[in-house]
């Protein structure tokens, strides 16, 4: 007892492992009880016993083992982890249970095995059982056979693979144990029950007695096919159906038949056979004997081969020599007996090898066909069998050329047999394998034989054509029969009806009669009007569809549903009656006078007779109406259907319609009238009645059948009007009757025929029909037309675009018509039916095309072979279009290719998988475990392209399968556990995208929480970020409590961090999407949009449509409904009362990142495709209220108007939330721009106008992402034909400038000028002219020349409005920059130039007029200081000015006509020396400048005689000379370049070569420095002269203005570095004669800073400063000079601010600030470099204001950056009043004109003394206002500064106290100390060390060559 008490205290799992058997028995008992109590299959308790289950079944104690087996059975049945134990448990059962004597143990063991099969582990169980058959213990073998038999009998051949079972049967029959043999016989009987005769060939070699016994047992089996009685977990729907049928007594026979077809797929006996190798068994002298002269020896060899080929399955090998020998015998041997044997050998080889024999088919087919000239029947029969067997190994495409070659043979026997061969081959074809391209030449050859003199040839041709017609349909063949007479066509049709295809279908009316008769015996419930028609076995489609649970018709391919009426039980088919019988029956029911006057010659009498006829049919009893007799009388009584009076003909059509609708109208009756009705369908007067008659026939006989007949008859005629109208009728009929039962593929063939018609009306009707079919089928329909011509395909796509977003109308006629309340559920499930329409598409089984050879190629070691295999698979998928899910061994082969070392093959495999998902449709979900999760594994790849392709493929699969399959099980969590940063970040990002739109998820998602927490602590920052983003999404489904509980299990170090992140994520958990309302979904199917029903009185489904019209009558009760919300639980009104936009922090930035990283589609399209709409809908779901989402994406435009009205009402109240969703809102409005409804468009424009005004009032700036997603589509609407729309768009563009800089709007407008729409071009040009007039040419940024050239092109436009707009825009530019416009616009034709000159003359604004007062509108439009790309406006006769001339004319320039922003700033050059170099401030102005300013003469450009190519080559030659190491060559090149740069018409040639030129100059400076180092004692005169030339060339470049703008930041950095190094060169400083050179360099630097692009200049300086700060070799002098350059640029900022790309500058500043850690700043709080950059940042803030925070978009995590922190501190401590802001701006503007020191003031006393005119501040206020308006910064604050008093003159203005002043004082101290050091010590003789490693000559040469290559 003591021992017992010890183990009794143990937990259950430890008891199960105890060494005492009693303890184990107790443990098993407790475990069994515990297993029975657990209700959740995902409970963690199951995992405790995962490793113990094997011990349950292998216990050594028999008593304990019995209890353990019971527990194991319950465990396997209920545990979700049981599938992992299958191998060890089943192995234990086989070895340790089946040998037990107790029957109960064996029974439990068998049940365990079968339970594993039930939980989807059949393969593993079968493998272990087959191993058990080899056990020496006969008890084990016997038990294994029993279990196999039970498994086959209960689960069927679909679940249990029969091939390995059949393989072991012969071995079991030879067992020594009788019990095993007997059980094996029972197993063989069970297998036979499932596969029937396919079992005979594998067992043909067993004992004859045993075989006879089996035959007897097989004969006793019932003929009905077996049915599966036990189902897998994934087949629970079939299980429920099976149980229901069992309760109903087994169901009716028809159902049994259909289920049997599903349960017992056809098994090919060939697959069950073992291949036999015969090549090695051939006689050694076979090839010698086969060529022997004696026929006996040849026969001996052939007999040996024939005996070997009788094996039904042959091993593949090299049969080339054998085939070659047989081919020779057939073709050349004169002995017909040998030919016969050889033909039999060929047939045997082809049958045994099947597809592997295809390579030899091309050699044999021509020979066999030629040999058909033999007359003997025995030979012909053998040859027929041979060629037929060969054909089955290949395709008709491969042998078609050989057949066509013998069709022209002179021998009639050859022609006959070739036609018969085609006939037999056609029987094995399908419409997809017999395309038009192949059918056309074959039909053409057969048509020639139709007229052959030999009757047997004609008959064979008729048979072949009839077979082809049977296979592809009449519509496909009829175009080829146009030239045949009716007799021959009828003969072909007769042959077609007699043809029996390979699948067993037989043509003719007998099958159709059976299809119609079947419902009469099975229809039991007349109330179910849409009862399905049962299919006869002979007419079974390849994929039979069982009746729908809602009673919808099962749309079988090729069979039409019968309209179920009250007379449904009557016979609806009948034999064709003779004319006499018809007349007799008609006379019995029609008035006698009517019957006689039908043949009257007077049309009025015939009209009266037809009126009586019609009345009689309307009053006649429908049950007694002789339909066939009545409609036949319309044709029998002359003139019949040749009636010439349209009134009589109309009445005849009405009679047909009435008889069809009221009587029991059969297809026989329909066939008698359809031809005549279709012939009149295109008639102008009778066409409407004809269509009504066709609709009546369709209602009686079913639309699918009727439509097929109508289209066939229409295209059998040559009247295009009839063809077009037949298609139009069909389009309308589909909408009325629905799409159910339509033979999709047949109609696609019809449409293709129509699309190829020459008549445009027929093509248009076909495209319209495609649009209607698209409503029901969706995107898969397009796959059938990918081979069409591009032009035709674009028309089809346009039609599909019109139909996008629309829902198919509910059927109102036919069997699909809903009838009252009984069909409520049917209407509710209509979307399902719509989704199932894709299942109507005929799918191809490609498993036979995926041969073992293809699979072996996929696994080949050679990558080329693997690629070849992938190409073959892709070709198979492309050809099949739609495929069945059975794809053989392909999944495993493709899975291995996903881990291929060749990444190109991996991407190709992903493409194939994506193609497979589309082709297979929803059925691809069964391959998710095999192929889906390996796609996720590809995300571990380090290449972005591979991961992107994997994500695209993954999304394609999810689109077909849904997310359920992916979230169930542990596979997803296992993938997430892999410590691969790429996999984790991509997979988490994917989950963040997919999970928020799911209403519910599998509980297995809980398994992903632990890996998610580990991702939060991943070393990779991106993984951590993605994991944090995923927390709210996981929490949305799992809840905070579950995740917090999971976090509690973490280690203490990790727990705190994870819990804090969970708390943070808790605040941003998105709301779950609610389930759709059934009522609303039912209503939406009918394409209505009623308002939600009142809470107190919900309307019935049948009343939903009238509810919409009744609601506006009672607007008052709305408040009451809101008050009763809590009582009625109506969520519709409750939701509408909340906010419409949900503020989600960081959501917009995340969307921008996803679009930049191409994780989502970029918002860029010509017209919105479905994927863009779906993407937007997905993105808006978490941000927009659910009820508003329904309105936004509703198909009804009224809902769109209502949604826009709601957004307008909430705009002010939800301004912040609107801004957070602004990008999505703007994208949604771009979709509305493509709508054709004017009401929606006007409402949208009204909202946009109000929106931008609101954003402007809030000082909001559009981001680049928002602007590029919206503005291009807004500009599209500028070309709208309606004036009211264009007016609104223009007003929106004008308001848009307040929130987005005009300079950024300019590129979009320029793109708009390229449109084909003349109105759009004119409006865009007008807007450009307005921008130029308002803001100057600075709106063009750096593209002034190109833009004006493009604008000037439109002066020659054909449209008057476009010409005038272009002229006005160029005139506006002329008013700003004068004559230079002629140079910018380029060469124009004489006519265009005269128009422009005339318009300029008439312009009121003359460029030579004096400056207007500052209050004039012209001054208001003046922009800020232009950058280098904006031309200056000179006065007439302007000459180059030297410094002295500039100073002497300073006073006169104040009143000159030239606007100041386009002037050359003289004060900048004058005060430059002090600012840049304090010790060189004295500039002798009386001396000539070493580099004179280039002389500019403004005149019209002359036409150059040299071509553009010659100009390019000459510039490249000059640049290469400059970089030469030869002094004279370089000097010559520099001189030539200076000459070019001085001539205005010449320096334009340098455009595009600036970087190249500067790099060449830098190379030359490096060479000069090297030469000076070689000889330091004396300076060569050539070197000095070359230095001067270099500086002169640089001076000419920077003075050209626009050219300097092209310099890139990297080149500018090297240029500034080289010039500063040159200035600080001690050798130059020691030489007194080099002072002039140093001053020239200073001037070049000063001009460079003013002329170059400020963004690039600041970037270059910041890069230099960064290098100087990190370098240990940088001299103090260089750092000081670099600081001065920075301060100079800071001083220029007020006039450059509008041209600066702030986002890029702030990014450069942020990169620099990263160098300064907090510890470093503590030690160096006054670091000069850091303070300089902070001063730059502070100055930018002062100039831009708080809006500078909107320009941090390029900085990653900008909210945590140093730049953002500094700007926030600046905003906090210096918030200026509006007046202070105005004053600061004015002071900054004035600062640049204040002399820097007294010395400079004295030197320029004459120009800057008291006589100088003060600067007018009003002028600058107006400039600032225009600049702010240009960049969207205009607000009310600027107006407050206009009343300020003008400041004192510049000379007396006090400097602003700022950080710049402190830095300048600090600089003065540093400069003073440096001067003292220089005086006390001699200057070093070595050159100044550079900032960092200077690029050597080789590097500079490489850069030069790279730039040249880029320019070419």
Protein described:
By secondary structure, the protein is an all-alpha fold. The chain is 62% helix and 0% strand. It is built from 101 helices and no strands. Helix 67 (1222-1233) packs parallel to helix 69.
- The helical percent reads 55-70%
| Distance between the amino and carboxyl termini | 99 Å
Which segments are poorly predicted (pLDDT under 50) over 5 or more consecutive residues? 250-264, 505-571, 816-837, 1076-1135, 1405-1507, 1776-1816, 1832-1860, 1878-1895
Mean pLDDT: 74
Count of helix runs? 101
Shape: globular
Computed CA radius of gyration, to the nearest angstrom: 45 Å
Structural class: mainly alpha
Number of E-state strands:
0
The portion of residues forming beta strands comes to under 5%
The main pleated sheet reads as: none
Oligomer state of the chains in this structure: single chain
Describe the secondary structure blueprint for this structure:
Layout: H1 2-8, H2 12-15, H3 21-37, H4 45-48, H5 53-57, H6 62-78, H7 86-97, H8 103-118, H9 122-132, H10 138-155, H11 162-173, H12 178-195, H13 208-220, H14 236-247, H15 253-263, H16 269-272, H17 286-290, H18 295-309, H19 320-332, H20 336-353, H21 358-371, H22 377-393, H23 396-406, H24 412-426, H25 436-450, H26 455-472, H27 474-477, H28 486-498, H29 509-522, H30 579-589, H31 592-597, H32 603-619, H33 627-636, H34 646-662, H35 667-679, H36 687-701, H37 703-716, H38 720-737, H39 744-755, H40 760-777, H41 790-803, H42 824-828, H43 830-836, H44 852-858, H45 863-880, H46 890-897, H47 903-920, H48 928-937, H49 944-961, H50 964-967, H51 971-977, H52 981-994, H53 1009-1016, H54 1021-1038, H55 1040-1047, H56 1052-1066, H57 1078-1084, H58 1104-1110, H59 1118-1123, H60 1125-1128, H61 1131-1136, H62 1147-1156, H63 1170-1180, H64 1186-1192, H65 1197-1209, H66 1215-1220, H67 1222-1233, H68 1238-1257, H69 1264-1276, H70 1283-1296, H71 1302-1312, H72 1318-1335, H73 1344-1353, H74 1360-1377, H75 1380-1385, H76 1390-1402, H77 1417-1420, H78 1443-1448, H79 1466-1470, H80 1472-1476, ...
